[in-house]
Design goal:
There is one protein chain. Helix content is 29%, strand content 25%. It is of the alpha+beta class. It folds into three domains: 58 residues, Alpha-Beta Plaits, CATH 3.30.70.2700; 230 residues, 3-Layer(bba) Sandwich (FAD/NAD(P)-binding domain), CATH 3.50.50.60; 190 residues, no CATH class. Helix 10 links the parallel strand 17 and strand 18. The longest helix has 19 residues.
């Protein structure tokens, strides 16, 4: 049996038969099997858009070659007497708990929100009634904020290849399509994620893991630099190791941790609004046609220097998606993007955000608690201006001209909109940078200025970062980890999951002693 690596090009709407025929024709063989190693769409030339596909072909008709060999994340199993508690069931928290349980450590996973099916129903009720549920919303609940998103599985983080591979393999085993292991820009969509996180939960329970929903951590018990227990709104839970993966929205958890001596500092983050366009406009700008057979929907990634001090960029683009009310608290108003696996909704959306440093913006040294207060006040401001959860919006043309001009008011946002001068709600430096960025975006993509801006996008990343050592432990604590987006060291599903896994692996090293 021989092996051959092969790179081929195929049209966007190629069939399995065309792929099979091309392999046979290039290698002059008939009896073979193959694996797709990588697949990406090359749309640089509109008249020659194609898939670039890398394959590993196996056949008795091929001489020589070696099979693809990948290093795997090694999870050392043995029965362990120690116990671990993980707080938060987003990617960081779940995969930390999953790895610990796989390694033989009795692990309890605590989630302040509800299980995913109940969460879905209660989100629907919120969108219909505007009655906010603090335990079951777009921010809190099984799977974390990422469950109701586009489900992107890309990451720019380095040195996480083993963790990434483990996460993707786990998703496939839980029902994700195998393509996520080789696509250049894989995604899952909310409809698939809701099934996947439920299946992963069952895998964790099958390993004798314990999971508690609607259980919120309220305090830490500390003795000589060791966490001995956590307090919840239901009980006191003792353990040997603790991983807090609260996400970037749990401000009261941040404040409690800081009150108990866990150190945090401010970091750069970004603010802006959601941009929304008809998906066909984006398709035509990127591909030259309104539809392209074999490809779901066109994407974009745009950057601009902004005003020179606040870079502007698109973030978390959701092709064929919707804009959703992603607030974590009753008196705040923020938005996010979501899409389903097929990406077949009418509109495309993405955040347009400007990066900022609060110390420079406010011209003083800003503490971590002050950063949370500042951001919370801005989120409350967007709530107050519309007296609820409607999305403040204006057209991109209005933002560019700094005056309200007529535009298309149709939007995917489910809770209604109110047209207002959005640029007046942001700090002037952010509005100026966004204006310059939107001008650049409009020069780069035909028709871009025809879109709308909706609401406040304030959760690209946390505004603060935990003080922690190289091993991931919180500075000054022997058995406490803050992981994932809430740590300020990760952003997105993959990097957050990897951060949680690394915390778990460090615990496994400690538990050997």
């Amino acid at each position: 049996m021989g092996y051959r690596r092969l790179s081929i090009k195929l049209p966007p709407d190629y069939s399995p038969e065309q792929l099979h025929h091309k392999i046979a024709r290039i290698l002059h063989i008939n009896d073979f099997s193959f694996q797709v190693a990588h697949k990406s769409l090359d749309a640089r030339k509109r008249n020659a858009i194609h898939w670039e596909i890398k394959l590993l072909v196996q056949s008795p008709e091929i001489k020589g070659g070696i099979p693809e060999k990948r290093d795997m994340l090694e999870i050392p199993f043995r029965k362990r007497k120690q116990k671990a508690v993980v707080v938060g069931s987003g990617p960081a928290g779940f995969f930390a708990a999953y790895v610990l349980q796989k390694a033989g450590m009795q692990t309890m996973l605590i989630e302040r929100g509800t299980e995913v099916s109940k969460r879905s129903r209660e989100i629907e009720i919120f969108e219909k009634t505007a009655v906010f549920n603090p335990k079951s919303n777009y921010a809190f609940g099984e799977g974390g904020a990422g469950t109701f998103s586009d489900g992107k599985l890309t990451s720019r983080s380095k040195r996480i290849s083993l963790e990434r591979q483990f996460v993707l393999k786990s998703y496939v085993e839980a029902g994700a399509p195998e393509e996520i292991q080789y696509l250049a820009h894989p995604h899952l969509g909310t409809d698939k994620l809701k099934i996947i996180v439920k299946n992963l939960r069952q895998k964790f329970l099958d390993l004798d893991g314990e999971m508690l929903f609607e259980t919120q951590m309220t305090d830490l018990k500390i003795k000589n630099g060791l966490i001995t227990a956590i307090e919840t709104d239901n009980d006191t839970v003792e353990a040997d190791y603790f991983i807090i993966a609260q996400g970037h929205s749990a401000f009261e958890t941040y404040r409690m941790l800081m009150k108990r001596g866990v150190g945090f500092h401010t970091k750069n983050f970004a603010l802006g609004s959601r941009m929304e366009h008809p998906q066909e406009l984006i398709n035509e700008a990127q591909w030259g046609v309104k539809q392209l057979k074999g490809v779901k929907a066109a994407e974009y990634r745009l950057t601009s220097p902004g005003d020179g001090g606040h870079p502007v960029y698109s973030f978390c683009m959701c092709p064929g998606g919707i804009v959703v009310p992603a607030t974590a608290y009753e008196n705040t108003n923020i938005v996010n993007g979501m899409s389903r696996y097929l990406r077949n909704e009418k509109f495309a959306n993405a955040a347009c955000v400007a990066g900022l440093n609060l110390n420079r913006l406010l011209q003083r040294e800003v503490s971590a608690p002050e950063a949370l207060d500042w951001l919370e006040q801005l989120e409350q401001k967007f709530f107050q201006i519309v007296s609820g959860y409607r999305a403040p919006f204006c057209s991109i043309k209005s933002f560019l001209q700094q005056k309200l001009v007529s535009g298309n008011a149709e939007t995917s946002y489910p809770m209604g909109t109110m047209e207002i001068p959005l640029w007046e709600l942001f700090p002037s430096e952010i509005s100026c940078a966004m204006q310059k960025g939107l001008k650049d975006f409009s020069r780069k993509m035909k028709g871009f200025e025809e879109g709308n801006l909706l609401g406040l996008e304030s959760k690209t990343s946390a505004p603060i970062q935990v003080n922690r050592e190289k091993n991931g432990r919180c500075s000054g604590f022997q058995n406490l980890y803050v992981a994932g987006e809430g740590s300020g060291y990760a952003g997105g599903i993959i990097s957050s999951a990897a951060d949680g896994i690394k915390a778990a692996m460090d615990i496994l090293q400690l538990s050997r002693v």
